[in-house]
Amino acid sequence: MKHSTYIFDLDGTLSNPLAGMADSINHALREHNHAERSVEEIATYIGPPLEGTLANIIGNNDANKISEIVLCYRDHYRIAGYCNNHLYDGIIDMLDRLKQAGAPVGVCTSKPKNTAIMILEHFGIVDRFEFVSGGDVGIKKGQQLKQLLAEGQIDNKAIMIGDRNVDILAAQQNNLTSLGVVWGFGSPEELSDARADHVIAAPADVLGLL
Question: What is the CATH number of domain 6-16+86-209?
Answer without folding.
Answer: 3.40.50.1000
